[in-house]
Amino acid sequence: MLQPTKTKFRKRQKGRIRGIARKGCNLSFGDYGLQAVTHGRVTARQIESARMAMSRAAKRGGKLWVRIFPDIPISKKPAEVRMGKGKGNPEEWVVPVKRGRMLYEMQGVSKEVAVESLRLASHKLSVKTKIVVREDYRDAK
Amino acid sequence: MKKVALTAEKRERGKGVSRRLRSDKRIPAVLYGKSVDPMPISVDWLEMEKLVKGEAGMNVMVDLSIAGGDSGMALIRDYQADPFKRKFTHIDFQAITMTDKLEIEVPIDLVGQSIGVKEGGVLEQMRRTLHIAALPDKIPSKIEIDITGLNIGDSFHANEINLPEGVEFPHVGNYTIAAVVPPTKVEETVAVPAEGAEGVALAEGVEGAAPAEGAAPAEGAETKPEEKKE
Question: What CATH code is carried by the domain that includes residue A36?
């Protein structure tokens, strides 16, 4: 699973996800993409699971780009522990995804295969998504 | 370069005006150029969409006629679009004269199927537009590149393109346009904690979040067993 190799601090504040994605919202590499329609946190497990689903559906053909990286640690308190006594331990890594963010891109496969792969991948994610095809698409600037 | 006609209207400056125009299905725009003072205008959204959905896309010469004003040739120099709906939010038109050379991005069209792709490789296109300099009437709608000879591991560079007459590269540098690469190999990645990482490594089983073998937690990292349970 994806996670940073080194972090400056172990724990982070929660933060909020506001607005729409102005960066990372275009098809930069491939011809097909999966774009977030809603905002939310996507975990490293979800990213890997979706990537595997796409890779298997495409029968390891084509090329795949993962456009997001989980670099935010999420802490959790253990079960049956009373409140207080400090913040819990980091348990998972997430990426805050804004509406409009391009999550995955594909190239080198037919449109049918790409759309099916991206559809399967979308079921693994915690945000709603739409499939973007370069034919009827325009870069946002 | 294809010529298309487009009508425009003058508008006031400001975001309130622009927002009202957008809600009336018009696109705020600006016309500028060497011999033209910057002029805020607006164009019809549907007309503009039809214009850019043609074969040449945005690489067209626009015969812009402004209601109650001048008319002249212009290029779509830049635009702004909504990152989600992909609708135009603003357009820049640059007034042109037929005697001045222009620097412009022209779309690249890869023609044919390469040998490498037939053998299972993946065609990766690094550049989708080409930066060229030419007189307005010499600007091609697109630049076609024949890639049938590319094998796996081969690439096509900018200096290998045979440019049409009157078209030139405005810069010296060379760059890759397309390459045929081997397909992605699936690597089963496992969470590996970084050496000296400040954060606790997250093993596959999230419960307990025990660092994987061989990864000593960094100094100062809290590794005390849970004492909070009651």
Answer: 3.90.1170.10
